[in-house]
Amino acid sequence: MAPKAGGDAIKANSSVYKDKSKPTDIRLSNINAAKAVADAIRTSLGPRGMDKMIQAANGEVTITNDGATILKQMSVIHPAAKMLVELSRAQDIEAGDGTTSVVVIAGALLDSAEKLLQKGIHPTVISDGFQKALQLALQVVENMSTPVDLNNEDALLKAAATSLNSKVVSQHSTILAPIAVQAIRAVMEPIVSGVGARVDLRDVKVIERIGGTVEDAELIQGLVIPHRAANVNGPHRIEKAKVGLIQFCISPPKTDMDHNVIVSDYAAMDRVLKEERQYILNMVKQIKKAGCNVLLVQKSILRDALSDLAVHFLDKIKTMVIKDIEREDIEFVCKTLGCRPIASLDHFTAENLVNVDLVEEINEPGGKYIKMTGCGQGGRTVSVLVRGSSGAVVAEAARSLHDALCAVRCVARRPALLAGGGAPEAAAAASLARASLAAPGADHYCLRAYADALEVIPSTLAENAGLNPIETVTELRAAHAAGAGGGAGVNVRRGRVTDMRTEHVLQPLHVTASALALATETVRAILKIDDIINTMN
Ligand code: ADP
Ligand code: MG
């Protein structure tokens, strides 16, 4: 009996070992799932790309053209498809723009890889071949980029405008592009040793407001708080303000435990009320003594940050009070005003207050908001008010502005611009195709396949603009064939191939370089997977 059982075990083992089709099946299923994601957003690429209407489970509707936003909201189940969603997010974090391009490139690379697998080339060989191709492509795009001077506002404006071109709000790019450039220029800090400048996008606060049109977008050198003051009869405009930001509440204190106090006679009730009045009055007196006339109060989740009595007293001493400053906004408020949050009444003294030239409550049809300007002691921050007629429009305008801000930030970080319209991808493809001729063995196929995949960008731009993709790509290939194509790209307005630099379609080098690098990295990772294992839980 025993030898038989042993033989069975060997047979079973060898059959598992011989199951060679499984890794191939898994790989193909991964590639197909990921390609499906890329196909889903292909039509949104470029200035003539379509927009998507996304309906959430709660009925909320988003209209967008931004790859990262579309993918974020898509419910994706397949683990390999999720990798493309992650890829788009990675590009969003790294560069902020090019989130559609990166996924479209990854989709095309996977398609090429599938063909190479069918030729019998081993996945690891393809993966290495793609890495070599990436290095070459990066060199090509770097060589064709033109360095820019960060003081040259015109170049930055072009980068912002190209990014806005492909958005729903593209007709407002003349308003939004200068805002993006001014905002980034206001907050950037030049790197002392080296090129470029550091930009922290957290220093640009974009505030969305319904009402008005996208053209009413406004850049404010100061602080905007998107709600009204809490005062009932208090002042609505204060010049030469002394502002204090507090993190404690001006309302009757509560104990940590839930409890009831039963008050059974009027005298006792009177005492409780008197006590409360005295408590609040003391706080307000201290505020007045410090000379504060604008009080910002951090939002409290435990109890009312301000009691009615407190508002009444603050009205009387003519102090403007603005409550519900979100906890996550405190850092921005402090940086903008140059103040520190005051955590207890004992520290509410004159030296902890800051001077602001003007604090006013602005009343507009969409509601009231507070604007503080002339924050002399503050740091380098700006606020941008984005307006629009409906929630969907405002949200998309804000997202588009985010992309434009990111595009300008990319130029600040790595001051070089490339021609757009698929020019860098076409130039890299031409160069790779030439290199493939001399490459030995499987590399020949890999470089060639990578080159074909890169042409997906010009071909999709043409397709989305209603041009014939094959004709356009052939024309583009011919332009770049000799290696002197320069900025030849798909001119979607004129419907043919022209030099995009003369069209002023310029995009940051960092966006394209990062899209190529991240897409290749993800494709290489997908190729190396040969099994999916589910955990038990
Ligand atoms: P992404 O989310 O990847 O930024 P977009 O929809 O913004 O996607 O499209 C970006 C692509 O559109 C880039 O390849 C860019 O060069 C191209 N593009 C932008 N403006 C123009 C234009 N006016 N003509 C041709 N191509 C353009
Ligand atoms: Mg874009």
Automatic annotation (TrEMBL):
One molecular function GO term is: ATP binding
Where is it predominantly found?
cytoplasm
Q: Which SUPFAM superfamilies does the protein's record reference? A: GroEL apical domain-like, GroEL equatorial domain-like, GroEL-intermediate domain like
One cellular component term (GO) for this entry is:
cytoplasm
- Does this entry carry the keyword Cytoplasm? yes
What residue ranges are annotated as transmembrane? none
Q: Which InterPro entries match?
A: Chap_CCT_delta, Chaperone_TCP-1, Chaperonin_TCP-1_CS, Cpn60/GroEL/TCP-1, GroEL-like_apical_dom_sf, GROEL-like_equatorial_sf, TCP-1-like_intermed_sf, TCP-1_chaperonin
Keyword field = ATP-binding, Chaperone, Cytoplasm, Nucleotide-binding
Q: Where in the cell is it found?
A: Cytoplasm
Q: Which family does it belong to?
A: Belongs to the TCP-1 chaperonin family.
Q: What protein name does the entry list?
A: T-complex protein 1 subunit delta
Q: Which organism is it from?
A: Bombyx mori (Silk moth)
